[in-house]
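Researcher: We're reviewing a set of sequences before deciding which ones to prioritize for further study. For each one, I'd like a predicted 3D structure that I can look through quickly. This is Leucine rich repeat containing 29. If possible, include the structure in C-alpha cell form so it fits the rest of the review sheet.
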Amino acid sequence: MMLTYILSFLPLSDQKEASLVSRAWYCAAQNALREDASVLSLISVLSPSLRVLDLSSCVALTNRTLQAICAYLTHLSVLRLAWCKELQDWGLLGLGEPSEEPTQEPQLHQELEHQASGPKEPPQPQGPSLLMLRALQELDLTACSKLTDASLAKVLQFPQLKQLSLSLLPALTDKGLVAVAKGCPSLEHLVLSHCSLLSDEGWAQAASSWPRLRHLNLSSCSQLTEQTLDTIGQACKQLRMLDVSMCPGISMAAIRHFQAQLPQVACIQSRFVGGADLTLTL
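Model: Here's the predicted structure for Leucine rich repeat containing 29, in C-alpha cell form for your review sheet.
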C-alpha cells in the first residue's frame, strides 16, 4: 500500500501521530511499524550459522532490534543497514534508551561523547553492542544519519573488516575518521561520499592506517583539497579506484598529479571537478 510506504519514511514518533488521523492511516502506520517487529521476531530463531544479513532500507528498524542482532547473530560476516535512519548512538553502544525529554538531549550527547573517549573504567553497556560482531568483514551504515562520532569512534573496531560504507553521515568528523582508521586497519573498500565535515587534517592522520585500500569513494566531500590526494597517494599504494566527483577543492591538475603518483589506479571518477564532467579510465 502506497500510504504504508510513505509513512515508513517518517520517524517513529511521527508514525504514531499519523495513526490518529483515521482508521486507514492507523492501519498503514501499524504496517510500517510491523516491519521492525517482524525482523525482531525472527532474530532469535535464525540459525547461528547465518553469515550475511541485509536489512537495507528497513527504515523503521529500531535500536532495540539492532541490539538483538548483536546478541543473537554474533557470527555475521556481512551486515547491511543502509537507510536504517532510526538507528542512534545508544543503539550501537548497547546502552539503555535515553529519556525522550528534549531538555536531556544535550546531556545524552555529552554522556556518549564521554563514553566514546575511553574513560579509565568504561561504563558497562546495558545491552549488546555492535562490538559483539567480531567476525564482520563488511558493514554498511549508509544514510544512518543520526549516528555520530560518539558511537562510531567507539564501536568501529573490527580488525578483519574489509568493506565499510559511512556515506551520508552528516555528523561524521575527522575524529571519527581517525578512530575508524585505527580500529579497522584491513579496509580494502571504503565509501565516505557526502561526509562534508571531513577535512585534509583528518586524512593526514588516517591514511597511513589503510595500506590495503583498493577502492575509495570521497565524492561530495566538500572540504577536501589536493592535500588529501597527496596524502592518499603516499599512503595507499594498493589503490585501484578513486571517486572524487563533486569535490570543489580538487582540481583536474591535482588529479593528473595524483595519477602520476599512482599509475596503477585504473579508474578516477572526477565528474564536475573543476567544472568538468570527466572520468579518467585506464
